[in-house]
Amino acid sequence: RKEVEQDPGPFNVPEGATVAFNCTYSNSASQSFFWYRQDCRKEPKLLMSVYSSGNEDGRFTAQLNRASQYISLLIRDSKLSDSATYLCVVNRSGGYNKLIFGAGTRLAVHP
Amino acid sequence: DTGVSQNPRHKITKRGQNVTFRCDPISEHNRLYWYRQTLGQGPEFLTYFQNEAQLEKSRLLSDRFSAERPKGSFSTLEIQRTEQGDSAMYLCASSSGTSAGELFFGEGSRLTVL
Questions:
Q1: pLDDT at A28
Q2: Which residue of B has its CA nearest to A87?
Q3: Cα–Cα distances in Å, from A71 out to A33, B49, B57, B89, B91?
Q4: What is the mean pLDDT of chain B?
Q5: H or E segment and range at residue A56
Q6: Nearest CB neighbour to A46, from listed B35, B48, B101
Q7: What residues pair up with A108 in beta bridges, in sequence order?
Q8: Residue B1 has what pLDDT?
Q9: Are B51 and B68 in contact (CB under 8 A)?
Q10: Rounded to whole angstroms, how far apart are CA atoms B53 and B65?
């Protein structure tokens, strides 16, 4: 079993749709949590951190449930430019950024 | 451009040959990481440097793989006696001690082993 599991998708949604991605992690000692975005043939980039209290950045909302070891990302009012792969990421180390990535969920937003 | 720089961007080699990749991190970052990514998968952690010290190596890093960061600046990743299973994108990333969770990745070096 992989340490970080995600639904691979693809999610094909029309512009304006709301889409939710889910992720589970197996190591209860994981320290911190993130969503990264990776465009086709590009490097991953940090999208947002994820906190237990939930956090929002514009159209993006991330949530963490430590008890269930579950992370989510909600995208509202999808744009064509949101098309990408969304990587769920956990930081296993408290001392440095040893990031463990999920396989990613691919999103395709169409007109 | 002051981002993470990797070269070569593409390398095609025959099985059994040695290859070396170079990474130049963001200049003020003391932490450097190597990851490997194959099609349809997320990046997999290979190794981590803090300054010139290699502090962690993944079990994925067989004895054919060696990484160095001799002066705490640029890093090299060498693969000896390449195998077809080594074909992947090799990503380098850097971070400062304060950037919690944020790694700055280079565009990667794509290796194809024939």
A1: 86
A2: B42
A3: 8, 29, 27, 27, 25
A4: 93
A5: strand A55-57
A6: B101
A7: A12
A8: 56
A9: no
A10: 16
Whether A98 sits inside 8 A of B107 (CB atoms) is no
CB atoms within 10 A of CB A38: 21
Q: How far apart are CA B71 and CA A90, in angstroms?
A: 29
Instruction: Pick A97's closest partner by Cβ from B41, B95, B106.
Output: B95
- Candidates A102, A82, A98; CA nearest to A40 is A82
Quick one: B114 exposed, middle or buried, by C-beta within 10 A (0-12, 13-18, 19+)?
exposed
CA distance A100 to A89: 6
- C-beta atoms of B55 and A96 within 8 A: yes
Q: Are B45 and A4 inside 8 Å of each other by CB?
A: no
The tens digit of pLDDT for each residue in B49-73 reads: 999 999 999 988 889 999 999 988 9
The answer, for A34 touching chain B at a CB cutoff of 8 Å, is yes
